[in-house]
Amino acid sequence: MKRREPNTSGVISRTVLIVDDEEDILELIELTLLRMGLEVERAMRVEEAIEKVKAGHYDLCLTDMRLPDGEGLKLVEFVSQNVRDLPVAVITAHGNTENAVAALKAGAFDYLAKPVSLEQLRSLVKSALSLPSAQPKVASDQGLIGSSPIMQHVRDMIEKLARSEAPVHVTGESGSGKELAARLIHQQSARRDKPFVPVNCGAIPENLMESEFFGYRKGAFTGADADRDGFFQAAHGGTLFLDEVADLPLPMQVKLLRAIQEKKVRKVGYTQEEAVDVRIISATHQSLSECVEAGKFRHDLYYRLNVIELRMPALRDRREDVPVFANFILDRLARHVGTARPEIESSAMKALQQYDFPGNVRELENILERALALCSGGRITEDDLQITPPEIVSREAAPSGSNGKWPLQDYLDRVEKEAILEALEKTRFNRTAAAKLLGITFRSIRYRMERLGIE
């Protein structure tokens, strides 16, 4: 790979590789980039572009999806696997969202639709060139702590997702840290200096949703005494986090889909649309796929939001991280009340590690806050925690002689989960082979794993 040399002014120039077989598009993009002070190199075929990437150093690659010797997706995959610091954006035919989604899943930074909007092109280029060359490490005081393999996987995913503009859907139980993950993706991305706007979709009255999301014009309705921006305008240049997105009513889902596809919104009371530049990250504790099957969520919106899924693990799935979490939370609570941090007795810590935490980290915080108030002598005992061991709960919940077979659904879920895990272990976690072993389809095992929370 060739070394970059400073230009005559001593500044290392930024170079963009554009890949297209249409001369007029190449001319348009090259002229725009040159006016931005960038250097440009061209390629007209996939293989030619791959050879250039192998031999040279580029700060950004723009490629068409359809080229004479193949798909631009091949170039995206090559760069994603071999040159991780090079962002690749794809140019797709207007309305061809399937190609765009496929490219984003393969690792593309973002996409542009034909005819290319120069305003969107300039915005995309600025964002791509703003990406840090090396991602900052996630500090423990940001809350994403723990050394378990599953948490390391989450950190790696966040670092990867921060170098993309792809829509991300964060799943996980309540209290598992979905908003924290979304914030970390934003903080490590090229949008880190722009707003992060969190929105709880379930907390907005249905009759106010459109005006809250898109803004309104003075006099548009009773009480609209001044022009006001909505969530999209507030997040312009940054990230819009849609929490509990499954709670959106169907009419609002249609409007949201259009805003995401067109990258434009229209305020209530206005006739014209305005362009907005936001990255969408969504989250819910529900299964969006089940909501789609039940007719409660639009399939096309699900397709646009769930481009890449990030699953936040439950606390009970990483019990080895509980002591780290507990000490971290106690440190923070003690500083807040101005006292010395108490020690947790070994029996109390063991009880915490055996507890299932239905409310995840949020419940652990509540338990420790209560224990801090109840403890004496600078030590937290098992009695101070006031939690019931899971084996006692199960004995109390099941009728005598039930052998754990009631409630029936819980029992069936346990049996199904054990069978799937056994099949996955036998096939070294090859889901296709495990599905064949179980006598079910790949789609079925993927759905069942999602429903049962199997990573």
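That was protein one. Protein two is written in the same sequence-then-structure order:
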Amino acid sequence: MSTTLTHSKPKALVPQLRFSEFDGSWEKKKLGDVGKVKMCKRIFSNQTTEYGDIPFFKIGTFGKEADAYISEELYNEFRSKYSFPKIGDILMSASGTLGRTVIYDGMDAYFQDSNIVWIDNKEELITNKFLYYIYQIVRYDSEGGTIQRLYNGIINAAKFTKPSLPEQQKIAAFLSAVDDKIQQLSRKKALLEQYKKGVMQQIFSQKIRFKDEDGNDFPDWEEKKLSHYIKVSKKKNEDLIYNKSDVLSVSGEFGIVNQIEFQGRSFAGASVHNYGLVETGNIVYTKSPLKSNPYGIIKVNKGSAGIVSTLYAVYKCKPNLDGRYLDYYFQLDDNTNRYLRPLVQKGSKNDMKINNEKVLIDPILIPPIEQQIKIIELIESFDLKINNANEQLKKAQEFKKGLLQQLFV
């Protein structure tokens, strides 16, 4: 069978990009024409456990890893009496991040009622594999503005266009091959990140050792207070060298970034004259709890200089420390939490009770500066590979996005 894609002449209900063996107009339909919206029987919180037999997927864990379970007895009872997806059905999030999809593969699992739904598709009008991609491009309309939840009526009224079953199968097979490539690139990136983390754990536990230029072992690492390596920076933006466009944010995943570029707008106060100056190479401690880092995070500024609010602590590295080493050390959540836990007191509103000087009083094992550089160079080589894999992944995702726009009406 030919797989040649051709550009169609503009006309009603014909996609811009089409396989050469197909012609004719597509047909307008609504999702309500496909089948009834279904959901599992409701599970109450007192029927779930932290550990158990059958994973229970809530909206927050949908498509990820379950963090709640139900008994096998309850699972068998509810599955035999109430609605349950069949293999190949497309599960969809009806709240939270609307429209996220997962193809049900028959695994023993239960799904949160009304938040995770599917259409009971008989595949007479549209194949499940084609429906999977329809979900990725369909637009839901609602009176009154922003949709907070996909109620059954909203799903039923959503419009789409469909070709013949053979053309559906051809498009779905082609896009499935693109998805396979995206998954391969995603796995490649994840494996590189996992390998990097394992190497870092061995480096910081000194299971991996380095030699100097003459092939000799470096001196043993010394345990000293963090104040031996960094000191509090008290530089402020008093001369208004920087403005709101220079405000920095600190991300657990991306490090120190420009706030407007990262979050889309500035959250700075009316005046930034008392904001702390952050030069390239400075260390910043964020006194805000994150899920993986309940005592805050510590990052080095690898980018341009800027300013941060008084909620952040800024430190300057002494000559015996390269800030990039400390950034890598604290990239491991266990290292960050183990160091900060004894120092931080939390208030009634989960706020951090710690001054900037106290952060420096606990001991930490850090190698000589020459060995720091070798460690940095090795880990940066992993970062380069991860960044390359991420760029390939982004390009594949953009390629798919373009295909979806051109292969569907």
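The longest helix spans residues 165-204. Keep this in mind for the problem set.
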